[in-house]
Amino acid sequence: MNKFIKIPKTKIFERLIIIILLISLGFLLIRENYASRIINRFEGGEFVYTYDKNPNFFKETELYDYYKEKGNVVMLGNSITYQCRWDELLQRHDIINQGIGSDITEGFLQRMKYVFKTEPKVCFVMGGINDLSRNISSIKINSNIEKIIDTLQSRDIEPVVYSILFVSKKHEKNNPTLNSRVKETNKLLRQTSINKGIDFIDLNKLMGNNNSLKEEYSYDGVHLNGIGYQKWGEIIDPIIKRKLGES
User: Fold this and answer.
1) CA distance 104 to 109
2) How far apart are alpha carbons 178 and 189 in whole angstroms?
3) Which domain holds residue 24?
4) Is residue 101 located within the same domain as residue 176?
5) I need a surface site. Which of 1, 116, 146, 183 has the fewest CB within 10 A?
């Protein structure tokens, strides 16, 4: 009697397909880093990215504890704000850079005490692109910015809100809905600014084109290059002077 069971060729083919699919699924899980995303907080049926997942937050705020400089103007934001030496660009010694790489708007709220510590008259706020990249909703972003506005106004600090910058068309290929969500969020931020009686600066009007960031202003499709920061500086320099009564 033959001890071996002969497996039909169709069954062998089906098993090979299953093995290939399992290998492909494993590769996808590794590539998309789903394991670490599962570890993230699970809330309301959705994975939620929180500010404390960002190591830059703790590295920078630890330094903030030791900084003693005061300034009339604070630039509050993420890496797009962080990567510019605003004091050099604008030739001002009263401007404080409080941008933190990869920070989200929840993180802004958690570090408002450092804004207060510098005793500014004006605080420019730009954030949201990291939130959107991590699937944090436009409504949540707007809610966080609104709380920031209220907190600043309660301390007699004048808030000025920037639009979230579009990403370039090339970068958008990696996230096809990102610029449409930027546009949606900016509508909310604009309306909130109007409701609060504060200025809303739409950087995309001069730095964007067809709902995307102009390639000439960025080195990677998200962050600005020298030309981009120069354009930004030209936009806000007269605004700062007007806010501080210098013109």
Assistant:
1) 9
2) 16
3) 9-39
4) yes
5) 1
Q: Are 152 and 159 in contact (CB under 8 A)?
A: yes
The string of DSSP codes covering 137-156 is -HHHHHHHHHHHHHHHHHTT
**One-letter amino acid of 218:** S
Q: Write out the H or E segment, with its range, that includes residue 123.
A: strand 122-126
Contact 217, 231 (CB under 8 A): yes
- 27 and 65 assigned to the same domain: no
pLDDT digits 0-9 by tens, 20-68: 878 877 665 555 445 544 444 444 445 679 999 999 999 999 999 999 9
**DSSP percent split of the chain into helix, strand, coil, nearest 5:** 55, 15, 35
Structure tokens at 43: 């809330």
Distance CA 120, CA 155 (A): 10
Arithmetic mean of pLDDT, 69-87:
98
Contact present, 243 and 157 (Cβ < 8 Å): no
Residue 16 parent element (H or E): helix 9-31
Rounded CA gap, 84 and 156, in Å?
Answer: 26
Report the run of H or E that residue 162 belongs to, with start and end: strand 158-162
pLDDT tens for residues 149-200?
999 999 999 999 999 999 999 998 888 999 999 999 999 999 999 999 999 9
For 201, phi then psi, to 5°, come to -105, 115
* Residues 113 and 175 placed together within one structural domain of the fold: yes
